[in-house]
Amino acid sequence: MSTPSNADSSAVRPGQVVRRGRRWLLGWLWLMPLAGLLLWFPPGRSAARTLVVYCAHDAEYARPLLERFTLQTGIAVEARFDTEATKSLGLVNRLLAERAAPQCDVFWNNELLGTNRLANEGLLQAHRGPGWKARADRHRDPGGLWTGFAARLRLCMVAPDRCPADAAEIERRLSGDDLRRVALARPQFGTTLTQYVAWHHAWGEQRLWETHDRWLAAGLRVVDGNAATKNLVVSGACDLAFTDSDDYWVARDAGAQVDALPVRVDGATICIPNTVAILRGTRQPVAAEQLIEFLLSTEAELELARSPSRQIPLGPVPNELLPAEVRELREWADEGVDLRDLGASRRAVLARLTGEAPP
């Protein structure tokens, strides 16, 4: 039997077979992780742990908290904020428009009524974690679709040298026939919408719209946003204005001589929580739950309470850790009206203000 010569290139030695087998095995070992990534993150799906957060709260207060969450967890956050003039309603409408192809993972709203609508429309995903369990019933959805935190109060802010902070005097001014020195943000948006909805629920259609129409006829200043109403009082252009507690404290911290009383509805105050919720269909459910619990934590509520906005904690934050002015606000917040089941009033108010059929 003849043996192959060294020049015979078709011959394969045993050592060559082993080396080729090793190369084949190493090639598959390199390809297996790549195949796993393709299975886990198919084309069109991002491998990054980035949460998209729609946020109606003021960026100057929300962004530092979201950045701290990223530092603590390594989870990147892409925050998209709303404008002052269309605060909260703009993002609610955007989420409704995107329902067929959701772009948002977590919605941080600065009021409750719009969040309730999203819950009723089936756009939210339940999460009943420790933060949800630590809230009173009126500050959470019973099924865990949203949870409230870091509230504000609706206030009537006055310049005491021109209008004393006295409930009877304020009522007398609002009952007069010249309201050119009284300011209100557009009532189809934000917390002014909540105020109108609470009035509608308590007073009924007739009394609310008679009051509204009379105010407009008397020259009520209707402007874009609560910051604008606050500025009119600070500048001396108005004597009193409806605004939120966070804008009131901005004025006080800037040295303005202003005072305030809570807006009341049949004796109850209007305490408006921030709300946080997970969007149904999120691709980041675990990360979304982490962000929810972070925002509902004592750490986050305490930071918002100590910030210039003086948000009112709704979780178990000890009073002794809070600034004195927030402790006073907290007492008023405890007298707040229940805002959870006002969907019918919200639809009626928006229909009247926008001239459109109730959504």
Task: Explain what the structure shows.
- The protein is an alpha/beta fold and 359 residues long.
- It has 2 domains: 50-151 and 271-331, D-Maltodextrin-Binding Protein, domain 2 (3-Layer(aba) Sandwich); 153-269, D-Maltodextrin-Binding Protein, domain 2 (3-Layer(aba) Sandwich), CATH 3.40.190.10.
- Helix content is 44%, strand content 16%.
- The chain has 14 helices and 12 strands.
- The chain has helices at 14-40, 59-73, 89-97, 113-120, 130-133, 167-174, 190-203, 205-217, 226-235, 245-253, 285-295, 298-306, 324-333, 343-354, and strands at residues 50-55, 76-81, 106-109, 124-125, 147-158, 182-185, 221-223, 240-244, 259-262, 264-265, 268-269, 271-279.
- Strands 1, 2, 3, 4, 5, 6, 7, 8, 9 and 12 form a 10-stranded mixed beta sheet that branches. A two-stranded antiparallel sheet has the order 10-11.
- The longest helix has 27 residues, at 14-40.
- It is globular, with a radius of gyration of 28 Å.
- The model is unreliable at 1-12 and 24-47 (pLDDT under 50).
